[in-house]
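hi!! sorry for the late reply, been swamped w classes. u asked for the two structures so here they r. pasted raw, havent cleaned anything up. first the sequence of the first protein and right below it the tokens
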Amino acid sequence: MSNAGPGLAFEQPICQLEQELESLESNKAGNGKSAKIRDLKNRIADVTREIYSNLSPWETVQVARHQDRPYTRDYLNLVFDEFVELHGDRKFGDDRAMLTGFAKLGHQKVMVIGHQKGRTVKERTECFFGCAHPEGYRKAMQKMQLAAKFNLPVICFIDTPGAYPGIGAEERGQAWVIAENMYEMSRLKTPIICIVIGEGGSGGALGIGVGDRVAMLEHSYYSVISPEGCAGILWKSHEHAPKAADALKFTSKHLPDLDVVDDIIPEPLGGAHRDHQQMAIQIKQYLVENLKQLKSNSVEDLLSNRYEKFRAMGKFLEKAESNQ
């Protein structure tokens, strides 16, 4: 998949070159045409590489939200050989914003949990744009416990601006169920791998974000709050979202130094939205390699390492050392 969508504002130099290439390829063959096409393709690659190696935090957010970026259901089709969806939380209903089910990764059976935003307007409305309700997080935990019962690894795909903020969700215990999920995941007796594939916003991400390996795609973000939410609190206007994005330090360039994520998974040139297949190959390779490592550990070591990893997070300086 390439030339995805009309392009973001900062992608316009790439789009112009791609239009030039399309025009050149559509014309009849002429002298030197092959050389011109080759040179133009090299130029497109160079410009794309230059732009994407210098993205600002706000531009990274735009890429993470790109309309053509692959979602959880896309990866279910591209990464896994089989998927059998499981529905409902046995208490209230079936949250379409949270996908759960059995899958096969090569010869390994796994349980996949993931946020789903929806591709069309109808799908996005049904999925609440990837913002899960309490029943979604309860569904996720029930399926994780089912996986642990049968010794199946759990794979979580995180892609949400945050948990659903409506009154009904709060009445049904949104904050409580997210906290409960974090607690239960910390002691789940099976390997857990979590990958931020797009947006990793607030408690909505943390509700399925406690794992033995926590990774993020190169152009995703993982944050305590969305840039718009931060701007609304600090500057009383969403217009300051780019400034908030700079301050939050939530991109793949910042989070490894803070030990918030373990690994960064490289994206294809120009972002995952330009090549779904290559991005899926990268993710599959990461999952296979890390599952092999995690399965070699005993349950006791797995839980101990997971606990220590999250206990060690939170580096900060309370007071500068005195020079005297």
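now the second protein. again sequence first, tokens right under
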Amino acid sequence: MAYYLDFEKPLEELETKIEELKRLSDGNEIDLSSEIRQLEKKAKDMRSEFFSDLTPWQKTMIARHPERPYTLDYITMMVEDFLELHGDRRFGDDPAIVSGIGKINGISMAVIGHQKGRGTKERIFRNFGQPNPEGYRKALRVMKLAERFKMPVVTLIDTPGAFPGIGAEERGQAEAIATNLMEVSKIKVPIVSIVIGEGGSGGALALSVADRLYMLEHSVYSVISPEGCAAILWRKNGELSLDDFSRAADALKLTTQDLKAFKIIDDIIPEPLGGAHREPETTAKRIAEYITKALETLRTKSTAKLIEERYKKIRKIGSITQT
């Protein structure tokens, strides 16, 4: 059964009615095809209307949609001969980050991404997509392996943030993220990053130092979650409302349109109407096309030029204009 967000409830009622009519007409002599087509058109128009004017908070909800494809889903759909690599060679393996070697459109590359998990058991196993230090060290190890074999790197970003637990802090969470930021900026092969869901705080930054940074249309990318921002700024007697979260999402400028305007990201990857979960295969194909197109350009550059342009790209972020 499909999962609908609160603002999609009118659409849920309509699509439920369509399914009921299809069941009634299936195997019966009653022809309801005309009524079904009319309702399907109405549903499509309604979906177009909803998704043409989404608020930042609604986009955040879509980015977190439980049916939205995760890293392993995209790997299954677009990566051939994927071989997963485990462990950071220091402490252990972190299931919150998946990494390995495979081929996209015939190009061998390293693919690394956050994995949130589905269902209670897997979400706990994946720590809800919140990596520990060993996850970031594993990612860096695989990137350096790719560098050794002159393979490009692709990262898929989808995390609420790095795990803030005591054990993570004891094992050097901040140091692991900082090391990734420094070391990945010097990797001598092309790097393409795509935000596929949530891009949260340093947990996302550690995998998003790249030559090309793209976002799926309904993903978000921010220094903090709207809930965290609202809690810091407007918590009153321990209570917060949806209005507070919506207000924070507006202020954070976390949507793809905002980030492209700020020149934080390079481009927006369109999603099927209704979100990536509506047509996962179509979304995966589009992501693969953007990766392939980016690599066509990046692989023609010398190593020195690649690193120089990456450095300049990073340095331009957050620039200040004085009048």
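hope this helps!! also noticed smth abt the second:
Residues 162 and 203 are 4 Å apart (CA to CA).
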